[in-house]
Specification:
The chain contains 3 helices and 7 strands; from the N terminus they run ααβαββββββ. By secondary structure, the protein is α+β, with helices and mostly antiparallel strands. The strands form 2 sheets. A 4-stranded antiparallel sheet has the order 2-3-6-7. It has a 3-stranded antiparallel sheet with strand order 1-4-5, covered by helices on one side. A hairpin with a 2-residue loop joins strand 2 and strand 3. It is globular and about 40 Å long. The structure holds guanosine-5'-monophosphate (5GP).
Length: 120
């Protein structure tokens, strides 16, 4: 399913991290359409190469993490955006947290990432 991978890239891939000024999450969540129809509550952007992210689906970059998930062998630089405030309708306001973490993802049968689960 090619759509799953392209959707994953839209939602979770940003490398190198886009220079959008302060309020990275506010800008990026809107730019990637994650503010519609309601503000997505939590979303993580991975600042790593496509090759390195795809490799998590293989033995060279990841390992089984149960429940159809895989965890990366090495940490990635990620930014996690968390919705703040009461209203879930746009304009959406987010807090930003940039850190180095192991990513947990699901891959399709073509070995492409299709779901971001969490980061540790
Ligand atoms: P909270 O800290 O709000 O209780 O939980 C946030 C949850 O969302 C955590 O389990 C975190 O791992 C997860 N999370 C972080 N980024 C994403 C994402 O991009 N998509 C999904 N579905 N969950 C995420």
């Amino acid at each position: 399913n090619l759509k799953g991978y392209t959707t994953f890239l839209t939602q979770h891939y940003d490398n190198p991290k886009s220079s959008v000024g302060k309020q990275y999450c506010d800008v990026m969540m809107k730019r990637r359409g994650l503010d519609k129809p309601a503000c997505k509550e939590v979303n993580t952007f991975i600042h790593g190469t496509k090759n390195n992210i795809i490799a998590v689906c293989t033995a060279s970059g990841g390992k089984d993490y149960g429940k159809g998930l895989r965890i990366s062998l090495r940490p990635f630089t990620v930014t996690t955006c968390k919705h703040k405030g009461g209203s879930t309708r746009p304009p959406c306001k987010y807090s930003d947290n940039k850190s180095s973490r192991y990513i947990v993802i699901a891959c399709n049968q073509d070995g492409k990432p299709v779901h971001f689960d969490e980061s540790l």
